[in-house]
Amino acid sequence: MTITTLPDTSIFESLESEVRSYCRNWPAVFDKARGSWLVDESGREYLDFFAGAGALNYGHNNPVLKRALLSYLEGDGITHSLDMSTTAKRRLLETFEDTILRPRGLPYKVQFPGPTGTNAVEAALKLARKVTGRSSIVSFTNAFHGMTLGSLSVTGNAMKRAGAGIPLVHATPMPFDNYLDGSTEDFGWFSRLLDDAGSGLNRPAAVIVETVQGEGGVNVARPEWLRALADLCKERDILLIVDDVQMGCGRTGPFFSFEIAGIEPDIVTVSKSISGYGLPLALTLFKPELDVWSPGEHNGTFRGHNPAFVTAQAALEQYWSDDHLEKAVLAKGELLHRAFDELSRGFRGLSTRGRGLVRGLVFDDASQAGKVAQYAFEHGLLVETAGPQDEVVKLLPPLTIAQDELQHGLGILVDATITVCAGQET
Length: 426
Fold this sequence. Notes:
Number of helices: 14
InterPro entries: Aminotrans_3, Aminotrans_3_PPA_site, Dat, Ectoine_EctB, PyrdxlP-dep_Trfase, PyrdxlP-dep_Trfase_major, PyrdxlP-dep_Trfase_small
Low-confidence stretches: none
Radius of gyration: 22 Å
CATH architecture of the largest domain: 3-Layer(aba) Sandwich
Number of strands: 17
Protein name: Diaminobutyrate--2-oxoglutarate transaminase
Mean pLDDT: 95
CATH class of the largest domain: Alpha Beta
CATH superfamily of the largest domain: Type I PLP-dependent aspartate aminotransferase-like (Major domain)
Keywords: Aminotransferase, Pyridoxal phosphate, Transferase
Strand content: 15-25%
EC number: 2.6.1.76
GO molecular function, one term: pyridoxal phosphate binding
Number of domains: 2
Structural class: alpha/beta
Largest sheet: 7 strands, mixed
């Protein structure tokens, strides 16, 4: 399918803010969606390798979750409840404990900080500072943690940081794994800065890290690097926050992305696909001894979004009562890896990285990534670009995508890359 005419987007262009972004790369007016597919108002179908930036791990309008949601709404279930107790919240907490926390030996308390990932991160930073009495947070190069001021202060992207309009303080960036091309194999540099009275680095309240940096360009931290970071934090009485907003809920295989490293963060942020259905929901998880909040000290109007509790509970029961989904994600991820590795060996200036079902094609010539994404859109596939120069074509297909759909999307990406990189064959 090649798109030859553009839809009427005049109302969006005249009335909606210039801040809109995804619609500029995908000039379609979408109308319906199911599973791994979206359909625009003219009836054109698009295979979705974007999945709501990772908010739709179980696909669009997942029928199991839809039935649970419709049944709840038809029964006049509570929709909005702030932090009042409801039957929907009870069922979610019981299911979360039974299917996620207890099997993994994780003792976390659960906070509902608000509807989005940045709410979860803000609560995590605030709690870390309250517990330790320290103000500084260590983050990492190319990190992305959200667009509110606290989350933005620990985000690396210069363009997004510039939008704050004020200095972003009390945060110190450090090199992410392999940022220095493998020349730093441990955390000796971090320890030295902490011990050196002349380094200018005060002991931080916490370190916040993504195990795979999605927006930063699909940068994957090695398990041994994550273990070294966790050990350093424990030795120095620094809280470790893992931001699992995009990489959690099975994106890398296991439910939590940090499971591969065998670590137990002090605080974990979860959002995006935790509701299962694309409904707003976020959790901040933390060890019980860190639960020092006073009642109402941190709150928000939409932290009690019960329809999201319902679909979240249904998703946990459907997909996390056994390890079938985890194994399927790892198998599909290996398929993507093999295809991209073969493609990368065929062209100069092309490489690949990723874990599970987050994968990236990395172009030395950043402009080529945008051209591949544009070709893909014109041929019925949605993929985004990521990285500081948008040099990475980033794949986030639904975890439930069928094998033939995955192969179909791969075929489009291979054709796109061959077309764009013609003349660079090895």
